[in-house]
Structure formats: C-alpha cells, structure tokens
Design a protein that fits this description.
Elements (H helix, E strand, L loop, with lengths): L15 H22 L4 E5 L3 H4 L18 H6 L3 H20 L2 E5 L3 E3 L9 H11 L5 H4 L5 E3 H10 L1
Parallel strand pairs: 1-2, 3-4
Helix pairs in contact: 1-4
C-alpha cells in the first residue's frame, strides 16, 4: 500500500486479510495487551470516521452513536479495506476492554488535514487532492457531507481526553 485510501480502484490490495485487516486488529490488540501488562488506567484508541460511515442501511435521520458501525459485508463487497480494518480493529479493542477490564475510549476523527509525518500521501490528503484536481469521486463520498478537522485539534483532543 502506498499510503492511499485502499479501495477497489487502487488495485493495490491483493490479500486484504494479510495486508490490511490482520495488521490493524493484531496491532491494536498488541498495544492493548501491553497497556494491560503495564497497568495503564485509560487508553484512547484513535480510530477513524471510516469505522462508522460505511453503512448504507443506517437511517439518514438518526445520529451516529456507539451503536453505529460500518457494515462489514458492504465494505467487503466494495473492497473498502480501510473502513473494514478500522471497524474490525475498533470492535476488537472494545471487546478486549470489556473482557480485561481496561478503560478504553475510542475517538473517530473525520478527515484530518495538516503537516504530513510520512513521505506518502495519507487518505485525508488524497481526498483533498482528488477534489482539487476535479477527479470523479465515488457516489458514496459525493452523497455525504465530508467533515474535516485540523491535525492539531485532533492531537489536543486525544491528549486531553
């Protein structure tokens, strides 16, 4: 993966379980296990809005809350591996927390813009590039209001929570 939003259009993900899904879930659980071992009191898992927005069956007039998840089958059918990985990792984190009495809070920030920490373009910035270039964006993205947030306020929120 070259730092973009993995999708069926990228042609980059050949083995989604091995390349995206397993690393997301196993990485999250590894960090939580270390936190349990070190007797950490509260863990803030930085998830993504992708864990809750890919659900065509969610009622339009209902606010998204802790019961809202991206539809896993819908994500698989559309080869939306990023949303599926975020959904699976967050669900695994919450299940681990329940089973191990670890206080876990998840944050699902929207598209986050700011200075890049890596040399490749991340998913949020790639969306912005597509819009600026006038590229065609999938119906799923054009039919929703895209929330966005500055990276500094995301960092501040995760530190103060």
């Amino acid at each position: 993966m070259s730092g973009g939003l993995p999708s069926r259009h990228s042609g980059e993900i050949l083995h989604p379980d091995r390349e995206v899904l397993d690393p997301a879930v196993k990485g999250t659980l590894t960090v939580l296990k270390v936190c349990s071992t070190l007797k950490v009191h509260k863990v803030v898992v930085m998830s993504s809005i992708a864990a809750v927005t890919s659900n065509p069956n969610w009622p339009q007039d209902r606010l998204k809350d802790e019961s809202c998840w991206s539809d896993k089958e819908f994500c698989k059918e559309g080869e939306d591996w990023y949303s599926l990985a975020k959904t699976l990792a967050e669900q695994a984190a919450l299940e681990y927390a329940r089973n191990n009495r670890l206080n876990v809070v998840t944050l699902c920030p929207p598209f986050v813009f700011g200075p890049l920490l890596q040399s490749s373009v991340n998913a949020s910035s790639k969306l912005l590039i597509y819009v600026i270039k006038g590229c065609i964006i999938s119906a799923a993205i054009t039919s929703i209001t895209c929330p966005y947030q500055d990276c500094d306020s995301t960092e501040e929120l995760s530190v103060t929570y």
